[in-house]
Amino acid sequence: MNRKIVFLGALALVVFNCAFPATREGMLVTDYKAPKKVGDKIYISESVGGKTTLPFWMSKISDEEFTAAVKESVKTAALFETLEEQFGNNWSLKIEILDLDQPLVGTTFTVKTKIKYTLSKGADVVKEFLIDESGAATVGDAIVGVKRMRLANENSAKANIKKFLEEVSKIQVKAPGKK
Description:
Layout: H1 2-16, H2 24-27, E1 39-44, H3 63-77, E2 80-84, E3 91-101, E4 109-121, E5 124-137, H4 145-168
Parallel strand pairs: 1-2, 1-3
Antiparallel strand pairs: 3-4, 4-5
Keywords: Signal
Signal peptide: 1-21
């Protein structure tokens, strides 16, 4: 009987202390609409610099999930008419996750993401954005620390993506033939 209790206790520790990566749904920006379209078509390449979440360590942001969140957020914000599946001569976006600053302990976890976005039109770089944004999660959001860290990661990434969308919408698009 005592072995069962010890086994169940150990199993509960393993299951409830497993870290989970930030999800695209948690990073998705749905509350921003661009005041105007920047362009017709854009290709968004997969981000670099993301990390894989190890089960018994800390939640991280993967390249795959972050890229998916950016793509869906750009689409929802209506900055561009369509998302392209292949690189072409239209607009393109490169994303580099430079830093994910996470606390080790605390009741409120505040995570800071530093991400570089490079927006190009054809072979020309139109603008580079270096965006530093924070996001937090408290004990009220999640009692379990690993979940609180995931939520803080998602909140920080979401704030970063939203700031990027706002900055891109400020770009002045030149009419064809004008310099």
